[in-house]
User: Fold UDP-3-O-acylglucosamine N-acyltransferase from Muribaculum intestinale.
Amino acid sequence: MEFSANQIASLVGGTVEGDGNVAVSTFAKIEEGHKGALSFLANPKYSHYIYQTQSSIVLVRRDFVAEHPIEATLIRVDDPYATIAQLLQMVAAMTAPHPSGIEQPSFVGEGVELPEDVYIGAFAYVSAGAKIGKGVKIYPQVFVGAGVEIGEGTVLYPGVKVYHGCKIGSRCIVHSGAVVGADGFGFAPTDGVYNKIPQLGNVVVGDDVEIGANTAIDRAVMGSTRIGNGVKLDNLIQVAHNCEVGDNTVMASQSGIAGSTKIGRGCMVGGQVGFAGHLHIGDNVQIGAQSGISKSTPDGARIMGYPAVEYGEFARQTINLRNLSALYRRVADIEKRLSDTDRS
Assistant:
């Protein structure tokens, strides 16, 4: 399947600069470009590649100014990164497999109504009382517990486990190995023994959520663990019982949220961030990778470090730490001179 520069520009509202008839049939990173490929330039660090790339078409910002001749045809757009995402989504919709029907062997519990356009893969198990929306795709070896609700157009990839009573909204994507609704980590120490606290709540996932592979979202002790609309969780993330993640928050891999912590809307969380329990993180907070969050944070904060501090303070601490050895040597030299003076 090929598209010309003129066709692509008309799809994304761009302006062609160069040969509008040149065609592409694939995508490539700008540094790995080749004939017939479409690339994009969004990060200024990669600007030098545009003068040597072999890609046929490159998406650039409207205000991009070339410093040297460029062989590729340019399509000028407002945001090359958002535009490439839009084009990738279009191609994925056209080329992705669209399985349908009910494969055997699979199990669908008594009383479960399946829309005509649903897909149930081989060895999947849908428990009694589950509610499955239109266009849902349940891939092989998925477990859907009793009373679970799955909204329209949601996809559960192979090996997903959704425990009883949990709810997943519409147009969600849950990747392989994810577990929604396992027991929260609740134990009461009594006479040196840890007695299990029953986890009687559930997990409620909003619409347009993506949950990465092997991510675990624990059910609440009481009430619900809540994942808001538009949330994107990377692979290998732990969300503990009774946590809340606000709408359109994104979180990178290997982060962990301890119980009852509430994260606001529109937050950006780097990889390997650890949250203590019972915190309140405000809206639009940005948290750098490997940070340790030990206290609540106001709206709009930019923090990093262990324990996390305001980003500017973290930068100053890092510089001071880098100079610590030199400072130690200076102090040792001063002490030695003072000691020599005292002896004289």
In short: The CA atoms of residues 35 and 295 lie 52 Å apart. Residues 101-315 form a domain with the UDP N-Acetylglucosamine Acyltransferase; domain 1 fold (CATH 2.160.10.10). The chain has two domains: 3-95, 101-315. The chain is about 15% helix and 30% strand.
